[in-house]
Design a protein that fits this description.
The chain is of the alpha+beta class. α1 runs antiparallel to α2.
């Protein structure tokens, strides 16, 4: 399974959010073996950006570890609104 988490951040909070997310992702990679990606939409609307964290091939229990890591890093203090999580899995063609 892959996790895709997207959320909004004000332009004025983007640098602080980056400073919280990058070390959080580094710690998750060290402790859980999942290297996260950090992306954002190229456009800004009304001084708000949309960011996305991508975690490919996550092991069982990773979502709970991510939830705890977000709280510990204080990520939510820099976002506007909720974090939205989407889960996708690989499609295996039938033989």
């Amino acid at each position: 399974m892959d996790l895709y988490i997207y959320y909004k951040v004000k332009d004025s909070d983007a640098v602080s959010l980056l400073a919280a997310v990058v070390p959080m992702q580094t710690a998750l990679a060290q402790h859980h073996g999942v290297t996260g990606l950090l992306k954002r939409r190229p456009d800004t609307r009304e001084d708000v950006q949309t960011w996305m964290e991508v975690y490919p091939s996550v092991p069982e229990g990773f979502a709970a570890a991510l939830h705890d890591a977000v709280a510990e890093a204080g990520v939510d203090q820099f976002t506007t609104g909720l974090r939205h999580t989407e889960i996708f899995m690989d499609v295996v063609p039938c033989a």
